[in-house]
Amino acid sequence: MSELVRFGVSLEKSLLDKFDRLIRERRYTNRSEALRDLIRQELVKKTWSEDLEVAGAITFIFDHHQRDLLNRITDIQHDYQKLIISTQHVHLDHDNCLEIVAVRGKAGRIQDLTDSLKAIRGVRHCSLSMSSAGKDVR
Ligand code: NI
Q1: Which terminus of the chain has fewer Cβ atoms in its 10 Å neighbourhood, N or C?
Q2: Where in the chain are the domains?
Q3: What is the pLDDT along the chain (138 residues), one digit of tens a residue?
Q4: Separation of CA 96 and ligand 1 centre (Å)
Q5: In the chain, what is the greatest distance between 2 CA atoms, to the nearest angstrom?
Q6: How remote is the CA of residue 101 from the centroid of ligand 1, in Å?
Q7: Strand 96-106 to strand 53-63: parallel, antiparallel, or no bridges (unpaired)?
Q8: What is the dihedral of CA 74, 78, 80, 84, to 10 degrees?
Q9: Cα-to-centroid distance, 68 and ligand 1 (Å)
C-alpha cells in the first residue's frame, strides 16, 4: 500500500454542507473515503478518454425468440475475442436473455464492441460499465 498523506482543503461552507449531505446519502462514513472515490472516478474517466488500458462490463438484454440473433452476437464476440475475459448468459424470462461480458483492453476497442452489440436488431438494451484495469486507481 502507498504512503498515506494528509492535506488541507479550503472551500465554501455551503459547498461543504452539500458535500456532507451527498456523502451521507451515498453511505460514506467519512469525507476521506468519499474524496478518494471521487478522485478515482476522475482518473478512470481520464484513462477511458485517452484510450488507455481499461476494464469493464457490457450488459445487454435481447430477444430470445429472434432467429439468428445469438449467432450474430457470438460472431461479434469472436471478432473481439482478445478483449473478452468472460461472458455470462442468463435466461431472464420466457422472452429475454441477459448477457454480461467482462472486458479488458484498449478503451476505444471496448467502445467499438459495445457499439457493435448495441446496433444489432433485437438487442433491446445495452450498457457499458466503464471501470479500471486496476493500476490507475491505487
Ligand atoms: Ni437465454
Answers
A1: N
A2: 13-49, 53-132
A3: 689 999 999 999 999 999 999 999 999 999 999 999 999 999 999 999 999 999 999 999 999 999 899 999 999 999 999 999 999 999 999 999 999 999 999 999 999 999 999 999 999 999 999 999 998 888
A4: 7
A5: 60
A6: 14
A7: antiparallel
A8: 80
A9: 13
Return the amino acid letter for 92. Answer: L
Query: 123 CB contacts (<8 Å, ≥6 apart)?
Result: 60, 61, 62, 69, 73, 117
Ligand 1: centre distance to CA 69 (Å): 11
Name the 3-class secondary structure at 131. strand
Cα 59 to averaged position of ligand 1 atoms, centre (Å): 14
pTM for this entry: 0.89
Return the number of other C-beta atoms located less than 10 Å from residue 60's C-beta. 20
Assign domain 53-132 to its CATH superfamily. ACT-like. Chain A, domain 2 (3.30.70.1150)
